[in-house]
Every structure is written in structure tokens, then in C-alpha cells.
Specification:
By secondary structure, this protein is an alpha+beta fold. The protein contains 15 helices and 19 strands.
Length: 473
Amino acid sequence: MKKGLLFLLLFFAVIVLAFQLKPVKKAVETVTAIIETPSLINKDSLTIKSRVKLPSDYKRVDYAKGSFEDYLRNYKLKPFGSKIINYDDSEYFWQGGHMGILEIPVPKNGLQQCADALIRIRSEYLWDTNRKDEIGFNFTSGHYFSWSKYAEGHRPKISGNKVTFGKTSRPNNSKTNFYNYLNLIYMYSGTLSLYNELEFIDANDLQLGDMLIKGGSPGHIVMLADEATNNKGEKLFLLFQGNTPAQSVHLVKNLENDAISPWYQLENTAVIPVLNAQIVKFSNDDFNLSALLELENAIKEQDNADLSSVWDAEMKTQLEADPLAEYQSALEGGESWPGQQVYYSHEMAQCTRCHSLDEEGSDVGPSLKGIADRMTKRELLESVVFPSAKLAAGYAVETVTLKNGNVSAGLLVKEDAESITMKLPQVGETVIAKVDIKERVAVMSSMPPMGSLITLEELRDLIAFLDQQKKSN
């Protein structure tokens, strides 16, 4: 497998395809989008090749029978009009962006998300063609783990950001165990690991089977499902993707060019108008927030003054209404595994110097065990980027001046309508009636604001990790 180094185009692929534009809020338009039958679609056909016809003057690029390219092109599809179904059997919120559903089961565990679906397709091809020794992937941590080792009984042991391997299970070469292996890969691999693992290629050399990857957490990935060319050497491609939440793998429409949809002519010039359109959607609260960080990065990479001006004006409006708006792109779309690495190992964040999870860390600050049961994602983000805004009970330091002139300084343990309880040096817990208090002054948290110490990508992953810290986990 290879990945296309598409520069500007990469963002076009991600913004338009990966996160899918939200539907217009009119049921009739949604229904129309589902049953729409463009002229290039054979609705009675059940493979990618037979479902999608060629535009005038184009022909399909030849590939050897039995090759991965041939395997993809002839992949089976569900009947035309089938809906995208999430792992929990619910319907995906928008059904207007696809031309076909690939015949790939969606496991109920929710692990088979965007990159994972493509990992599965590649792995199943290698399994079916008796090339099982080639099945293997890097974890996001960089550690390679193959199906062969898993089948022999080797398993990873993960502690914080440390990964070791040991033989702890009996050998098992069954196909059922093969899917157990894939579930493990889904947990510890993803778009970021594929981005770092796979070979870069030039955009002009794209071919069927290549992947367009926006590395990051979550980032996104689509695969080229078919390829056509004309006598001028111009190429068109079909694209398919999985998504988050885990859902049906689907062949996507071209939302920008109905004349050739679902074929795509991958041109860099399409980027600016697409990004402008996404800014409008964001302004109208009609944008998938899990793609917000990718949108911000795409705008920066364009280095376009007009585009930046539009975005800066929108962010100024957002910040006037909500001081947390600067960091809102960290609320959705993060990955827990990279976030765990930030928590345990980031040399600037140093979370474990003050906090603990289970037995690891310090009790200088509040324990984070079960923190997601006590705080929403937004509250977690606020506590990380504005640590002095609201301090946990027992960790907020206050100076209290009483009406009789006495001054006390210590930890605020608890508070109710009538009194506060403070833990005072050399005295211990002391209850102070509020009617006796003249003035209370909160002392700033010693925790530095994380927004200035880690990147937005790292912040988003950290929030995703903290949001999984529930007692049930």
C-alpha cells in the first residue's frame, strides 16, 4: 500500500469526503439524496466496477487479475439505496453522500472505524490470497505487530506508553482468531500510524489502491477504489471510506461535480472554494466538530490572505461569545492512545507530577481516576487550558479574612450555604461560618495552562484519553 502526498488536495479529500457535509435540514431533500440515480450509476449492479459507469472518452486502467487493484475494483456492494448503518444498528445521521455500501460487516464493538475498515480490506485480501505472512501493522506507538506473531500466541503488554510483547496464549491460526487480531490492531493502530508507516508517493503517480491520508488524531483516510484515464492522460478516481463512529464502508459521491459523480478529478484548485464553504457551515453551526482541527490546519496551509481573513473574523466572533472557543477543536475527534502518551510521557505537560491514575502518578493534585464520571468533555477541556477557573475541592487554596481581623490560608475542603471547611497548616480541618467572613481570596492554581505547552492535536488526544477515565473502564 502507498499513500498519496497530495499537499492541498489532501485537505480537499479530508474536508469534503472524510467528515461528510451535514444534511440540509429538510427531510424531503435527504430522501431525494438517497434515491437519486445519476446517469453514471447502474443501480442494479452489485460490484464497484459494474455499479459505476465510465464518463465519455474514459477507460478503466488495466490491472492484473487477482491483484489487489482488481480485488478492490470488483468488491461486492449491497443493493443500491442501502443505508449507512452504525455499529449499534442505528442509521448514520446523513445518507446523502454515498453511491454504494461495500459488503463489509460492521462489528458491534465499535472498533472498526475509518482507517480500521481499510486495514481490514487489505488484510482480508492477503488472507484470501494466502499471503498471511504479509499481514502486520504498526501501533501508533511505532511498534510493529504481525498476524504471524499473534497466531503463535504473542500478545502486547501495554503500560502507560511502554509496549512489550510476550507469548501468553496458545497458538491459533483460525480465521476467528484472525479477526481477534484485527480487533487488537483497530485499538492500537489508526490513521496516524498508517501515515507514519506507509510510503509517500507523488500525486501524479496515484493509482487504484493508494490511500489519501490526513495524518493526525483522528485524521482521516480514504482509498482509491477504481481508476480511469482518457487519451490526454487525465485521470479520474472512485473513493471509498469508513468513518467515525464505526459504520458501513461506503463509496462516496462527488459533492462538487455532479456531472462526473461519483468519479473524482483530483485537482488542487478545488481547495479554496471548498474551505470557504466549510467556514460558512461552521458559522451556521452546521459543521462536524470532529473535523474542526483539520479545517483550521487546512486554512493555515493554504497561506491565502482572503481565506485567513474570513476565518479570523469568524473566530473573533466565536471568542467574544465563548473564551473556550480558541480550543473547541480539541473537544471532538481525539484518539485515546496518543492521548495516553501525552498524559504519561509528554516532557512539557508532565501530568503525572501532580495527578494519578490508579497507582501511577502523584497526589499533589486531584486523582483523575473516574474523572469522566464527574466532568463533561467541555469541563475537562476548561480545567486543562484554564486550570484556575475552577479548582477541585481539597486543592483550591484560599486566603480568608475574618471580620475580627484574623487571617487564615489553606485548602478549601468543602463548602455549603452556611460555612466553608478549610484544611489549615498545623491545625487541620476547621469549619468557618460564612457570616464571620469579611473577604475570601482564591489563590491561582500552580498548574500551567496546557494550551501553551502542547499542540492542539495533543490537547485533543489528551481530552479523548481523560474522557475515557470512568469507573466502568
